[in-house]
Structure formats: structure tokens, C-alpha cells
Fold this sequence. Notes:
Blueprint: H1 8-30, E1 34-39, H2 40-54, E2 60-66, H3 69-73, E3 79-82, H4 85-88, H5 97-106, H6 108-115, E4 120-126, H7 131-143, E5 149-156, H8 165-178, E6 181-186, H9 187-193, H10 199-222, H11 231-238, E7 242-252, H12 256-266, E8 280-287, H13 293-305, E9 312-319, E10 326-336, H14 339-342, H15 348-355
Parallel strand pairs: 1-2, 1-4, 2-3, 4-5, 5-6, 6-7, 8-9
Antiparallel strand pairs: 7-10, 8-10
This protein binds guanosine-5'-triphosphate and magnesium ion.
Residues 40-41, 68, 92, 129, 131 line the site of magnesium ion.
Amino acid sequence: MSSDTYDADTVARMDELQESEKIAAIMRAARPQVSVIGVGGAGCNIVSWVKEKKGGISGAKLIAANTDATHLSIIKADRRILLGEKTTRGMGAGGYAERGAEAARESIEQVKKDTSGSNIIYVATGLGGGTGTGASWVIANALRPSGALMIGVVTLPFAVERFRFQSAKDGLQKLKSYCDTVVVIDNNRLAKVAGDLPLKEALGVANELVGEFVKGITETITTASLINIDFADLRAIMEKRGIAAIGVGEASGDARVERAVQMALDAQLLDIKDATKAFGVLIHVSGGDDITLDEVTQAGEMITRSLPSKARVVWGARVEPALQGKVRVMVVLTGVESTFAAEKSGSISRMIRSRS
Ligand SMILES: Nc1nc2c(ncn2[C@@H]2O[C@H](COP(=O)(O)OP(=O)(O)OP(=O)(O)O)[C@@H](O)[C@H]2O)c(=O)[nH]1
Ligand SMILES: [Mg+2]
């Protein structure tokens, strides 16, 4: 039926409808596809926490990959991959990173298939064990040709696990060379910020932090937010940037923005050489629906004032109903040098001394 059978109003409404459908379709196509792959026990626990406690991530696929079949069987995810069925027979890598790497090689086609079409891939893992340490870099390396922005998110072992430091460090060096950016969280610093918790609870805090980080950043890109983060901007500060450190602060009541910002700046969760040398800064502000744009702007200004003027700043803000009355600020510094990653091999004792 031709449009001249309708009156002018109807035609105008049809045009508008067509236009908004077109905009919606373009928006959907422009929205980046995101995959989050948790590798090893810790990585899978992080993914499972997001899936179970947070109902997943809007616009992202949650994948759990482990060599340990028993552990994998209790994990919640959109997709679960048993790595290296022949190599480890579902029994884990027993702390051997080389076995973890071999297992990942064996199952790499499945990993590629499940992440295909992604524009952003997060590889989340707890460094120090066999699977996460060995498989994460093999996976990042294999997925690199896809052209996706590859972001590693890793934790470093606790001081009580010092026998795992060298392996974690080797794994981090490799992962760093295959990812655009690796966000590194030192469990020891995290535990301090969280108030010296028993190990099990501290692990829970680590899962939560990594989970919130990945979910917060992703949804500020993929869904309509107070201030959206543009994928191209994110790429600009993350692409080929090496190590990133993160700081988190949360406050309610009087001067909540100032206090949350100060906390996030003071408590970087990685020992870095010089924050003022950061290449880029990602600022993420969230709060209950009582958060105002003024507060968001105030947070951004406070952070940029305390950092070098040449640093590139990207920021976004989201309303999260669960944060009613509170403001949460995340500051990610990209392109920094980490003391842990920079330590020369063979100087573990010095490293331990400086960390304990
Ligand atoms: N965030 C977080 N970290 C954990 C958790 N469990 C262990 N870790 C940390 O992650 C490191 C690696 O442990 P796992 O993830 O259990 O090891 P894996 O990669 O499964 O390696 P294998 O068990 O040897 O195959 C540990 O040294 C801890 O520092 C967890 O549930 N959450
Ligand atoms: Mg394991």
C-alpha cells in the first residue's frame, strides 16, 4: 500500500517510527559485543559471582573455563568449558602452569568459537595456580588475531602463598604481552582495604571487586547510562597500555563524593611506581537514583585535578538501585609501572620483604 492512501499525520508518524527503528537498529549494531572469560578456579568463581549475585552482565556473555570438572560443575555461567580433557582428565592443573597452558591449547578451538564476534574480551583470573596462570595467556594469545580489545583482570597471590609469586609473575609477564591492558589487583592490598579479613572472606571480596569492575564498565558502554562510556574512548586508553591499577572508594552521608574520591585515589590496589606517569584514567561513578549529575561532575573534577594534565581521561556514570544513598567511585590508571611486574627474576626474597 502506498503512503498516499494515509493522511499527513499518519505518514509523519510512520516516518518517525521508521526513523526510530533505524536508530535502534544502528544502536544495536554499534554496541560492542562483550565476552568475559574466567579462567581457573578464581576466574570461574568471579564469573559465577556475577551471574548468580548480579544476574549477569547486560550485553556480555559470561564464560567459565577450568581444568577442574568438579569445580566447574558448581559454577554458574552462560557457557562452561572444560579445558584440556585429555591433558588433565578434569582433575585440575595441580599448580603447574605448564599443564594449564597445555590444557588451554587442547581446548582452544572451543574458546575461539564461544568468544567469536566479540569486540571486547575480558580474561579474568587469579594468578598463582596452574590453570589460571598457564591458560590465561595462551587464551589471550589465541584470541588476539580477532582484533578484540583484550583486557586481562588478575589478582596476585596473598603473602601466605609466597611460593606462588614466581609463577604468578611469569604468568603476568606473558599475559601482559598478549593483552592490551592487564588490570592487576594485589590481594594483599585488597585485604588491607577490606579490613584484614580471614582468607576465605578476602577471596570473596576479590571476586566481588573484579565482578563489579567488569560489570560496571561493560554496562556503562552497552546500556543507556547517566553518562555513557564510548567504546572508542575506552579503546584509546586501554589499547597496548600494559599494566593498569585500580582504586575503589565508597561513601554515604556528608561530603560523600569527596570522601569516595579520596578513598579511591589513596587506596590503589596495586603497588605502582608513579601514579602521575599514568597514560590514561578511567573514572567510573555509580550511585543510587539519588545521585546527581553535579556529584558526578564533582568527582571527575577532583580526580583530574590530582592527576597529570596530559593524562587522557575517560569517564562514565551509572545509577545502581542497590547503592541507594551511596556513591561509589572507581579510578583505573592505565599505562603504569608495577613494582611486582618490574621485579627482576631471582629477587623473590627482596620482593617478599618489600611486600610483607
Ligand atoms: N579472587 C579470588 N581469588 C582466588 C580464589 N581462590 C583462589 N584465589 C587466588 O587465585 C590463585 C589461584 O588459585 P586457583 O584459581 O584456585 O588456581 P587454578 O588456576 O584453578 O589452578 P589449579 O587449581 O592449579 O589448576 C590463588 O593463589 C589465590 O591467590 C577465589 O575464589 N577468588
Ligand atoms: Mg583449580
